[in-house]
Design goal:
Elements (H helix, E strand, L loop, with lengths): L1 H24 L10 H5 L13 E2 L3 E9 L24 E14 L8 E12 L10 E20 L2 E14 L9 E13 L2 E10 L19 E9 L2 E9 L8 E12 L2 E11 L9 E12 L2
Antiparallel strand pairs: 1-3, 2-3, 2-13, 3-4, 4-5, 5-6, 6-7, 7-8, 8-9, 9-10, 10-11, 11-12, 12-13
Length: 300
Amino acid sequence: MRFLKYFVFIYLLTCSYALYAQGLFRKKDSIVTKSLSESWELDKKDKNGTFRLNSYKPFYVLPAQWTNRINEMPQSIGSEPAFDEPADLHSTEVKFQISFKTKLIQSFLFGKGDIWVGYTQTANWQVYNKQLSRPFRELNYEPELIINYPLDFNFLGFQAKMAGFAFNHQSNGRADPISRSWNRIIFHFAMEHNNFQIYLKPWIRLDRSADDDDNPEIEDYVGRAEATVIYRKNGHSLNLLLRNSLSFKDNHGSLQFNYMYPIRNNLRGHLQVFSGYGENLIDYNHYQTTVGIGISFVEW
């Protein structure tokens, strides 16, 4: 009953905020966009100048996310467990994500390329865990500098729309022994056709000494590339995110499925299912399956 009370309270709170946010973003200049050109200002008609705040990755709140295997003893590869005893964690927690981007430089490369800066933050919050004083189990911070160039040609029945690369840093801001971080150069290529969008993102992890690696072999678990497939119709959105280590031996990775359905205007219900490694950085080498339900404010 106590769990139910907190769940209902948080769900009503997020819904109330969402309805308030709808009043802010229901005008014509809403930050919610659909096409790749609208989202990344690729065509001349969609250019909006610099330092204008835009949505990036989905912005959502999941008041209930359940996992079949909570990570009570986080441990990096080749290291001892971070704690002497398993933490008394609950298998159900709150998860939320905020994400935005802004353009720093417009039309700098042959009059077409742009430079963006993006920021994404995700949180796993043990809000129902009174015994441990409701701590944030994990916070992940992900700033990145993105160089983007518009494209316009047919590719496998799709219209190629953009390509580029990003300097990406991701960390949890914690001290040893549960510090986790890595730096990458992420290449990207995106295309669309009718209601479909596809993003392909391989990456290279930047060199790091073995003595200063918080999460060794992270590429072998979280992966070396990801593909995102998005299908939208009548306000509904199906998003499939696949990550893979691209290794024939001990192949690892993850799959995340998101279903967003319309509630009112731009407010959507959100169902998220994840299975694999790297649901967050502290769990980079921890396999689990999670199911979360909540609401979304904006999407890709």
